[in-house]
Structure formats: C-alpha cells, structure tokens
Specification:
Oligomer: single chain
Bound molecules: inosinic acid, magnesium ion
Distance between the termini: 12 Å
Number of strands: 10
CATH topology: Rossmann fold
Largest sheet: 6 strands, mixed
Shape: globular
Number of domains: 1
Structural class: alpha/beta
Helix content: 10-25%
Strand order of the largest sheet: 5-4-3-6-7-8
Radius of gyration: 16 Å
Number of helices: 3
Amino acid sequence: MKIKIADLEFEPLISEKVIVERTKAIGQQLNADYQNSIPVFVGVLNGSFLFIADLIKEIDRPCEIAFTKLASYYGGTTSKLKIRDDIDLIMDIKDRDVVIIEDIVDTGNTLHYLIDKLKKRNPASIAVCSLLLKPEALLSPIEELKYVGFEIENEFVVGYGLDYQEMGRNLRDIYKKI
Ligand code: IMP
Ligand code: MG
C-alpha cells in the first residue's frame, strides 16, 4: 500500500516480519562473536532507536548500551558532506569492545566521522552493525562494517526509525520513495 509523507510518496520495501527475522539472526551472530566480552552497543540517534531496541533484546549475555546523536541529512533526501555532531558519546570506551549500531549506511561519511572520533578514545575494538546498506552510494569502504541487515538499491527509504523530514520513524515496515 502506498503512503504519503509530506510531499513524497512511498511504497513497501521490507516488512516488519522480515526485519524481525533478520534482527534475530544478527543478534545470534553477535552473541557468538562477543562470547568473551561485555560489549558496548552505541546507538546512533535518531535513526537507529528502534533497531537497537529490538536487537539488544536478542543479546543473551551481559552488555551495555550508550548513545550518540549525529545528523547528515537534516530534512532532505540526500546526504550532506558536513556532519552535525549533536550529542557526544559520554561513556568511557577505553579498552572496551564497541559495536556501533546504525540505521543505514549511505555515503559512509557519518560512520567514517564517528569511527575516527571513537578510535581516539582507545577502545579494544570497533565494529559496526547497520540495518541497511546502500552499496552503490558508499564512497569508500568501511573495514569495521561487519554486520549488515539488508543491502538495498540507491533509493531513499523511511520507516522503522528512518525519517523523511523527521516523519515516518514510527512506521513498522520500511518503505522506499516512488
Ligand atoms: P551517510 O553519512 O551518507 O552514510 O548517511 C548516513 C545517515 O543519513 C544515516 O545514519 C541516516 O540517518 C541518514 N540516511 C541515509 N540514507 C537515508 C535514507 O534513505 N532515508 C533516511 N535517512 C537516511
Ligand atoms: Mg542515522
């Protein structure tokens, strides 16, 4: 079913059911990979808030959760080169295994910025888990990107945390712009 948000129309791309299944599978992978550690999951607000909430429920061992807020789209449908650093990560991550949780990797600029910044704080390791990846839009490879929910075309999407002009984050499914 088509939906309208502000001036744009969207159609379904990934259903809630498929997201739930994939999230479970990623959670199991994380449980296996972080067996001997207490990882810190760092959610990148706002977009990742639903994904990190669902993903963390699949983690069956001790872990911590923290947040940072960055923005690169501010309202439109194309990524900006300039990253707005709205809320810093307050937790001390020295010697910790950090897993950054993102909603989507587009150009990769946001992640490169965040990874560079967090590396200076001397964590034991940094990995990235993103629900979505647009491989065609990625400007340079991100070595730390170890977990990806779904690879999608170079298209603008909303729902399940992702917004268009701050709307659509509450949708249970992911939709793409028509
Ligand atoms: P990047 O810096 O170009 O990789 O952009 C990453 C950020 O832009 C993501 O964390 C999202 O918040 C936002 N973003 C990228 N693509 C989309 C999209 O298709 N819909 C909504 N937000 C997006
Ligand atoms: Mg984001």
